[in-house]
UniProtKB/TrEMBL annotation:
GO terms for molecular function: phosphoribosylglycinamide formyltransferase activity. Its EC number is 2.1.2.2. GO terms for biological process: 'de novo' IMP biosynthetic process. The lineage of its organism: Bacteria, Pseudomonadati, Bacteroidota, Cytophagia, Cytophagales. This is Phosphoribosylglycinamide formyltransferase. GO terms for cellular component: cytoplasm. N(1)-(5-phospho-beta-D-ribosyl)glycinamide binds at G12, S13, N14. The active site is at H110 (proton donor). Keywords: Purine biosynthesis, Transferase. It catalyses: N(1)-(5-phospho-beta-D-ribosyl)glycinamide + (6R)-10-formyltetrahydrofolate = N(2)-formyl-N(1)-(5-phospho-beta-D-ribosyl)glycinamide + (6S)-5,6,7,8-tetrahydrofolate + H(+). The gene is purN. The chain holds residues 41 to 239 of 239 of the full protein. Belongs to the GART family.
Length: 199
Protein backbone atom coordinates (compact mmCIF):
# COMPACT_ATOMS: atom_id res chain seq x y z
CA UNK A 1 0.00 0.00 0.00
CA UNK A 2 1.25 3.45 -0.91
CA UNK A 3 1.76 5.73 2.06
CA UNK A 4 0.14 9.13 1.69
CA UNK A 5 1.07 12.35 3.44
CA UNK A 6 -2.01 14.54 3.03
CA UNK A 7 -1.37 18.27 3.42
CA UNK A 8 -4.12 20.77 4.17
CA UNK A 9 -4.61 24.29 5.47
CA UNK A 10 -8.34 24.45 6.11
CA UNK A 11 -11.57 22.50 6.16
CA UNK A 12 -10.28 19.20 4.84
CA UNK A 13 -13.22 17.95 2.79
CA UNK A 14 -10.84 16.49 0.19
CA UNK A 15 -8.85 14.78 2.93
CA UNK A 16 -12.07 13.23 4.24
CA UNK A 17 -13.05 12.08 0.76
CA UNK A 18 -9.64 10.44 0.33
CA UNK A 19 -9.91 8.74 3.72
CA UNK A 20 -13.33 7.41 2.71
CA UNK A 21 -11.98 6.22 -0.66
CA UNK A 22 -9.27 4.30 1.22
CA UNK A 23 -11.90 2.64 3.40
CA UNK A 24 -14.57 1.81 0.86
CA UNK A 25 -13.69 3.33 -2.52
CA UNK A 26 -11.15 3.28 -5.33
CA UNK A 27 -8.14 3.61 -3.00
CA UNK A 28 -9.02 0.54 -1.00
CA UNK A 29 -6.05 -1.81 -0.80
CA UNK A 30 -3.90 0.70 -2.69
CA UNK A 31 -3.13 3.40 -0.14
CA UNK A 32 -2.99 4.28 3.51
CA UNK A 33 -2.69 7.62 5.28
CA UNK A 34 0.78 7.98 6.81
CA UNK A 35 0.04 11.45 8.16
CA UNK A 36 -2.28 14.42 7.75
CA UNK A 37 -0.15 17.54 8.01
CA UNK A 38 -1.07 21.21 8.26
CA UNK A 39 0.83 24.48 8.24
CA UNK A 40 -1.90 25.77 10.55
CA UNK A 41 -2.23 23.95 13.89
CA UNK A 42 -5.81 25.28 14.15
CA UNK A 43 -6.97 23.96 10.76
CA UNK A 44 -10.38 22.26 11.16
CA UNK A 45 -9.19 19.51 8.79
CA UNK A 46 -6.58 18.40 11.33
CA UNK A 47 -9.22 17.89 13.97
CA UNK A 48 -11.40 16.01 11.49
CA UNK A 49 -8.46 13.73 10.68
CA UNK A 50 -7.72 13.10 14.36
CA UNK A 51 -11.39 12.26 14.91
CA UNK A 52 -10.99 9.49 12.32
CA UNK A 53 -7.98 8.19 14.20
CA UNK A 54 -5.52 9.30 11.51
CA UNK A 55 -2.01 10.41 12.53
CA UNK A 56 -1.68 14.19 12.41
CA UNK A 57 1.18 16.67 12.56
CA UNK A 58 1.50 20.42 12.17
CA UNK A 59 4.06 23.19 12.06
CA UNK A 60 2.93 26.82 12.08
CA UNK A 61 4.06 28.64 8.93
CA UNK A 62 3.09 32.05 10.26
CA UNK A 63 6.02 34.44 10.27
CA UNK A 64 8.42 31.89 8.79
CA UNK A 65 10.54 32.31 5.67
CA UNK A 66 9.32 29.97 2.95
CA UNK A 67 12.54 28.08 2.26
CA UNK A 68 13.33 27.54 5.94
CA UNK A 69 9.80 26.54 6.80
CA UNK A 70 9.68 24.09 3.91
CA UNK A 71 12.92 22.48 5.04
CA UNK A 72 11.32 21.77 8.40
CA UNK A 73 8.19 20.40 6.73
CA UNK A 74 10.25 18.11 4.49
CA UNK A 75 12.07 16.75 7.55
CA UNK A 76 8.81 16.29 9.44
CA UNK A 77 7.19 14.46 6.51
CA UNK A 78 10.21 12.28 5.76
CA UNK A 79 9.84 10.74 9.21
CA UNK A 80 6.64 9.15 7.87
CA UNK A 81 8.35 7.87 4.69
CA UNK A 82 5.50 8.88 2.37
CA UNK A 83 5.30 7.53 -1.17
CA UNK A 84 3.09 10.43 -2.19
CA UNK A 85 2.53 13.95 -0.90
CA UNK A 86 -1.10 14.78 -1.57
CA UNK A 87 -2.02 18.46 -1.44
CA UNK A 88 -5.63 18.88 -0.34
CA UNK A 89 -6.29 22.57 0.05
CA UNK A 90 -2.71 23.24 1.15
CA UNK A 91 -2.62 26.98 0.58
CA UNK A 92 1.09 27.44 0.17
CA UNK A 93 3.37 27.59 -2.81
CA UNK A 94 6.05 24.94 -2.37
CA UNK A 95 9.69 25.99 -2.49
CA UNK A 96 12.07 24.21 -4.91
CA UNK A 97 13.63 22.39 -1.93
CA UNK A 98 10.28 20.84 -1.12
CA UNK A 99 9.47 19.93 -4.71
CA UNK A 100 12.88 18.30 -5.22
CA UNK A 101 12.61 16.30 -2.00
CA UNK A 102 9.52 14.51 -3.35
CA UNK A 103 10.06 14.99 -7.07
CA UNK A 104 7.32 13.45 -9.21
CA UNK A 105 5.43 12.30 -6.13
CA UNK A 106 3.54 15.47 -5.21
CA UNK A 107 -0.02 15.71 -6.46
CA UNK A 108 -2.45 18.63 -6.24
CA UNK A 109 -6.09 19.33 -6.94
CA UNK A 110 -6.96 22.73 -8.36
CA UNK A 111 -10.55 23.88 -8.70
CA UNK A 112 -10.09 25.27 -12.21
CA UNK A 113 -8.28 24.53 -15.46
CA UNK A 114 -4.65 25.25 -14.54
CA UNK A 115 -4.10 26.60 -18.06
CA UNK A 116 -6.69 29.29 -17.35
CA UNK A 117 -6.36 30.02 -13.66
CA UNK A 118 -3.56 29.54 -11.13
CA UNK A 119 -3.28 30.16 -7.41
CA UNK A 120 -6.03 31.01 -4.96
CA UNK A 121 -9.76 31.79 -5.26
CA UNK A 122 -10.56 29.74 -8.36
CA UNK A 123 -14.26 29.32 -7.53
CA UNK A 124 -14.58 33.06 -6.89
CA UNK A 125 -12.95 33.64 -10.28
CA UNK A 126 -15.42 31.32 -12.03
CA UNK A 127 -18.41 32.84 -10.21
CA UNK A 128 -17.37 36.48 -10.68
CA UNK A 129 -16.83 35.90 -14.40
CA UNK A 130 -20.16 34.07 -14.81
CA UNK A 131 -18.39 31.12 -16.42
CA UNK A 132 -20.82 28.51 -17.78
CA UNK A 133 -18.45 25.78 -16.64
CA UNK A 134 -15.15 25.22 -14.90
CA UNK A 135 -12.70 22.35 -15.05
CA UNK A 136 -11.35 20.63 -11.96
CA UNK A 137 -7.70 19.68 -12.47
CA UNK A 138 -5.53 17.07 -10.76
CA UNK A 139 -1.86 17.54 -11.56
CA UNK A 140 1.66 16.67 -10.52
CA UNK A 141 3.43 19.52 -8.78
CA UNK A 142 6.57 21.00 -10.28
CA UNK A 143 8.46 24.13 -9.29
CA UNK A 144 5.98 26.54 -10.91
CA UNK A 145 2.60 27.73 -9.66
CA UNK A 146 0.05 25.18 -10.92
CA UNK A 147 2.20 24.40 -13.96
CA UNK A 148 2.83 20.67 -13.45
CA UNK A 149 1.70 17.89 -15.81
CA UNK A 150 -2.05 17.35 -15.76
CA UNK A 151 -3.21 13.89 -14.71
CA UNK A 152 -6.98 14.38 -15.04
CA UNK A 153 -9.59 17.04 -15.61
CA UNK A 154 -13.33 17.08 -15.26
CA UNK A 155 -15.81 19.69 -16.37
CA UNK A 156 -18.31 21.08 -13.87
CA UNK A 157 -21.45 22.62 -15.32
CA UNK A 158 -22.06 25.99 -13.63
CA UNK A 159 -25.17 27.02 -15.55
CA UNK A 160 -27.78 28.37 -13.17
CA UNK A 161 -25.34 28.41 -10.24
CA UNK A 162 -26.46 31.69 -8.72
CA UNK A 163 -24.25 31.87 -5.65
CA UNK A 164 -20.62 31.24 -4.81
CA UNK A 165 -21.78 28.56 -2.38
CA UNK A 166 -23.57 26.73 -5.20
CA UNK A 167 -20.49 26.95 -7.44
CA UNK A 168 -18.39 25.47 -4.64
CA UNK A 169 -20.95 22.78 -3.86
CA UNK A 170 -20.97 21.56 -7.47
CA UNK A 171 -17.20 21.80 -7.78
CA UNK A 172 -16.36 20.04 -4.53
CA UNK A 173 -18.68 17.15 -5.38
CA UNK A 174 -16.54 16.57 -8.48
CA UNK A 175 -13.26 17.14 -6.64
CA UNK A 176 -14.08 14.49 -4.05
CA UNK A 177 -14.57 11.79 -6.69
CA UNK A 178 -11.92 12.83 -9.20
CA UNK A 179 -9.08 13.12 -6.69
CA UNK A 180 -9.40 9.59 -5.33
CA UNK A 181 -9.86 8.04 -8.79
CA UNK A 182 -6.88 9.88 -10.25
CA UNK A 183 -4.66 9.01 -7.31
CA UNK A 184 -5.69 5.35 -7.59
CA UNK A 185 -4.76 5.35 -11.29
CA UNK A 186 -1.40 6.97 -10.56
CA UNK A 187 -0.54 4.47 -7.83
CA UNK A 188 -1.48 1.56 -10.08
CA UNK A 189 0.53 2.96 -12.98
CA UNK A 190 3.62 3.53 -10.85
CA UNK A 191 3.31 0.08 -9.31
CA UNK A 192 3.15 -1.50 -12.76
CA UNK A 193 6.22 0.39 -13.85
CA UNK A 194 8.36 1.34 -10.86
CA UNK A 195 10.61 4.38 -11.00
CA UNK A 196 13.85 3.72 -12.81
CA UNK A 197 12.56 1.06 -15.18
CA UNK A 198 12.27 1.82 -18.84
CA UNK A 199 10.36 0.23 -21.65
C1 LIG B 1 -10.56 22.83 -2.57
O1 LIG B 1 -11.55 23.42 -3.38
C2 LIG B 1 -9.25 22.71 -3.32
O2 LIG B 1 -9.42 22.36 -4.67
C3 LIG B 1 -8.72 24.10 -3.19
O3 LIG B 1 -8.99 24.44 -1.86
C4 LIG B 1 -10.18 23.79 -1.43
C5 LIG B 1 -9.90 23.05 -0.15
O4 LIG B 1 -11.07 22.52 0.39
N1 LIG B 1 -7.33 24.18 -3.52
C6 LIG B 1 -6.77 25.25 -4.10
O5 LIG B 1 -7.39 26.26 -4.37
C7 LIG B 1 -5.29 25.11 -4.38
N2 LIG B 1 -4.84 26.21 -5.19
P1 LIG B 1 -11.03 21.35 1.45
O6 LIG B 1 -10.11 21.84 2.59
O7 LIG B 1 -12.42 21.19 1.91
O8 LIG B 1 -10.47 20.12 0.79
Amino acid sequence: EAKLAILLSGRGSNMLALAEAIKTGPLRGLAEVAVVFSNDPAAPGLEAAAALGLPTASLPSKGRKRAEFDQDVVAALQAYRPDYVVLAGYMRVLSPTFVRAFAGRIINIHPADTHQHQGLHAYEWAFDNHLPETKITVHLVDEGLDTGPILAQQVVNLEGADSLAEVQRRGLAVEHVLYAETLADLIKRNAAQPEGTSC
